[in-house]
């Protein structure tokens, strides 16, 4: 996956430069939102609704790809390790499916070998904040501190200079968070496929996770899963295989951003 690292580095530079100048607006932006959407059904895209669509579009955040391509984007939120991430990484490697892992500071500190493997396997690391607070209730300095502390820990462990994709804990955000993130070089990535999978000790079975994923799968899907769920680890191989059978391709968030930004085709074609 060496090409992904090269293309990812170029895209990271592009995002940092573009995000700093992206937002021409300025407002108090204090109204708090909880990310949510009308779930996809029968292959139709999920819809966040007019209010949330307006906010994310204004600040360049993304939650789904274009509706005319059978492409899906895997992402995982990692607050703490529960013993199932290695299995997930094994599946992704076997299926040659890229993913983005949105990490907290606790995860980097408590599971360093898994973080190193994510990077070695060619996956992207996203910023889920250092301490998993309600980011919308922080001052701008507090927001920047959360992102930077995570980046500093990641750099110490892996040598990666910084993250460029951010995701607010529990999907709680406001316009100010997106604005401050843009100025600091972070592109906020939400999601269009999700289900209740974050309860550490509750098992619903692999079929539960598989069916939830398949029922919501749609062109341009940005899929959120939590690595603490054994159900997800067990369902992932079958889900990826069935999605591919239906004609879906799994690409990275770098590819998603390329799609939105009309990045040079020469670079797009170099992504495996």
UniProtKB/TrEMBL annotation:
Cite the NodB homology domain residue spans from the record. 70-251
Pfam families this protein is in?
A: Polysacc_deac_1
- Its name, as the record gives it, is Polysaccharide deacetylase family protein
Q: Which organism is it from?
A: Lysinibacillus xylanilyticus
